[in-house]
Design a protein that fits this description.
Layout (H helix, E strand, L loop, with lengths): L1 H25 L2 H21 L5 H24 L5 H19 L4
């Protein structure tokens, strides 16, 4: 169950980070409510997942997959560009996340 909660936390992390960019483009205080609310939910989910997964493993997966998701979301939602070298480093992040999961004790 902790891994499912962590997956939801990763998704929430991605939506949270993308909502920061969205709120910045809107420029109103009302739009800021979305990322602030998501940050509370995000932290609660991560903390809950850490009850069953070691902190280092959960955090590494959360940040790694979150970063990849935000990059991909930025490409599709905001037209951001990535180059082949960045894609290579993104691949290394995914390899690190998979390795972290494969060799975790949980």
């Amino acid at each position: 169950m902790a891994w499912v909660i962590l997956a939801i936390a990763v998704f929430t992390e991605i939506v949270w980070a993308l909502s920061l960019k969205w709120a910045a483009t809107i420029g109103s205080w009302q739009a800021s409510v979305v990322p602030v609310s998501l940050s509370f939910l995000n932290m609660a989910l991560l903390a809950f997942a850490m009850r069953g997964i070691s902190a280092g493993t959960a955090y590494a997966i959360w940040t790694g997959l979150g970063a990849i998701g935000v990059i991909i979301g930025g490409i599709f939602l905001f037209g951001e560009k990535v180059n082949p070298i960045q894609i290579g480093f993104m691949t290394l992040i995914v390899i690190g996340v998979v390795g972290t999961k494969l060799f975790s004790a949980n």
